[in-house]
Amino acid sequence: MVTKIVVLPVGVIKKWRGIVGVVASVMLVLTYSGLAHAKKIKSHIKSRDQLEYSVVFFELFQKDYFSALVENSYAVELNNPLARNDQGEVLKGGMMLSYGMADEAKTIFDRLLSANAKEEIRNRAWYYLAKYYYNKSDVANAANSLNRISGKIPDDLHFDYHYLATLVRSSGNHNVPGLKEPNIAKLLQTYPNYPYLQFNNAIGQLRKGEIIDAVDNLETIANYGGEDEEFLVLADRSKLGLAQIAIRMGRFDQAWAYLQSIRTTGLYSNRALLSYAWAAIKVKRFENAVAALEVLNERSIAIPEVQEAKVLLAHLYEQEGSPRKALKANLLAIKDFADGVNKVAEARRIIDKKDVPREFITNIEAIMDDSDWLSAEPSVDYKNLTPFLIDLMASHPFHETLKELADLYSIRKNLQYWLIQAEEHIIVLDNASKMAFDQQAKALIKESQALNSRFADAKSELSLISMTLSEEDQERMDVLLESVNSDLVTLDEDVGFFGELKEPYMQPPEYRDMVAALHKRIRMLLQRTELNVVKLEPVMRSLVKAELDKHEERMSYYSAQSRLAKARLYDTTLSTLEDAQRAINEEKKEANK
Amino acid sequence: MDKLAKITILVAVCLLGVIAHAEDDKKKTGHWTNEIGDATVDFGGDESQRSERRAREEVKKISNDIQKLKDDVIILNKDLRVMEERLLFPSNTKFSVFVSMTSGQFFYLESIKLKINGRFVATHIYSEKQQAAMLRGGVHKLYITNLSEGKHDAIAFITGIGPGGRAYKRAVELSFVKKSGSQYLEVAITDDPVAQEPTFEMKQW
Asked: Is the pTM value of this prediction over 0.80?
């Protein structure tokens, strides 16, 4: 067996993406050692079983839990020991938990914990169990499970463990032998998602009244200087939190300073601009408040902050002594609220359309990316629906419903794919049953054998002829002969192989029944999937409609306020005119006297 | 962390927190802005809560069904795959090719082409996600076929980006003997820290 490297011409130079260095530091789940000292790094694959099983990781690390579970199930079917041992079991439980099969996952963790597995397995099981309880909003049991973890935590779970600990208010102290707390903190800072953990810590400190520490942590996050959108959003969120703390302490100038540094685009911009306006009003900087509200006033009427800003802006104009501007702002607000109510009606009509829940879920990533919270319109039909649902995305029941529906749609797609494949299975079976060595095939093999022998003779002749040629020509001929020889050897082997066969491979007769039974299962599962989709889609629709009702109610309320303000301003203007008229009349009377 | 979950948490905390402060401020001070203190109005709150409660109950009710369905679909997928392999790749002739990557310090894998016995049989372009999954220990199953017993040749053409952002195109070749029973071939991409170069190998399992 020979391995050789063939160097080919280098192609077009492409951009180095810089990912290798970062990702390379992530641990390999299956241990491989000797990386540091070996001259040449060997593949981490040490056995045939490992090669076969590592396909599970390929899917798992792409977060495709369904495919990972199928691969795992396949590895179990092949009796792969890595899929059947405790490590494989606990990993399977973790994947099930992530794929929404929480109950079966819990059974696996309970079994492993009662079987007295080794420390790493137990720690993994306790961690996943804590996650299970946290997902069910059972914070007490989640904290209890986390507190059962002790000693070394597997590297790939270490950060997640501390992150979950901040969420369930656990101490996150797993007593690592030989590693002190400051060192753990230092280690955690090396993880890319550390700012999230720091933010949760700050919230915990706020709850405990440790304001200075909380502000310290939030300021560190707020000072993020990179370009990652996720962390920029988190920085905005921290600034908003800091402003909130300052406002509660009556430090409006400080709050105003924090609010000023929040980006005027992005997830937190609407809330920040409104808070900024309120803070400016508190410190009597009305012109700044007006500026912020005017920015908000340009945005989509579907955003609650924009609705509030419209009323507040008109009111500020009135207070600064500009009744005409106030009147105009109120008139425009009334028109905008009417438009908003019409859009809600349109959104109700859209959500009733047949395929909208599926399309909404399929495109959710695109919707979230495209509707940049600034009323930029996504390119799909439900563009009128989406802006009204931004707040609803924060609702746990809505999120859960979407997740289950998304899984059901994926399952439906998978089963529909298999239904198409089922037709091909039948074709393969039919063709296989027709295969046989008929007279024609036997004649062909005989002919090939004769041809093969003629080729061999011709090759010998050519070899002899080549000897009569000049040395230079002989070399050229030798190359050709070598190539011909290689082809002849292959042909020889094939002819020999077919010659020895008595009959072609025939599939066992029970295959046909097995295939039919599997096809029946596809159809049955597809029916069950449809049944669940039919049950869940109305739930999603009712949640969306309740949210739309909320929007309509709020806009109607604000619209009524604007109408009242408009009437009051008209009255004031009329009475001012009447007063003026009266004054003129009196002046005329005086003059006539 | 899942993107939707993050946005959900962000929006929820932001709205709850900041709305609360706006309410507090307006209540505490006797400022003229109290006249339009609308943040205290709970628009459609009752109906919204009722509908969320109903949704929770409904999801809980069918959650067991969905979990069981998921389990059955996973098993069915596995069974169908085993069945397809039995139909198309009998165990005596089955031959699978895998791609593994270790270290990855000097190479960013972009694509691979596979030639068996002089014929191009498979090609794959790797996404960033797949590349990252391989660096964490995942192995990609590139190709599965039937090979008769005897001598065979396999060549893998691997392209990507090497040290210093240089484009890399390498071919690695292996002549091997296929024996009876299912067999595996690993295309292993590793590093040579001394030469500061990636290395490519094929191994029969």
From this structure: no
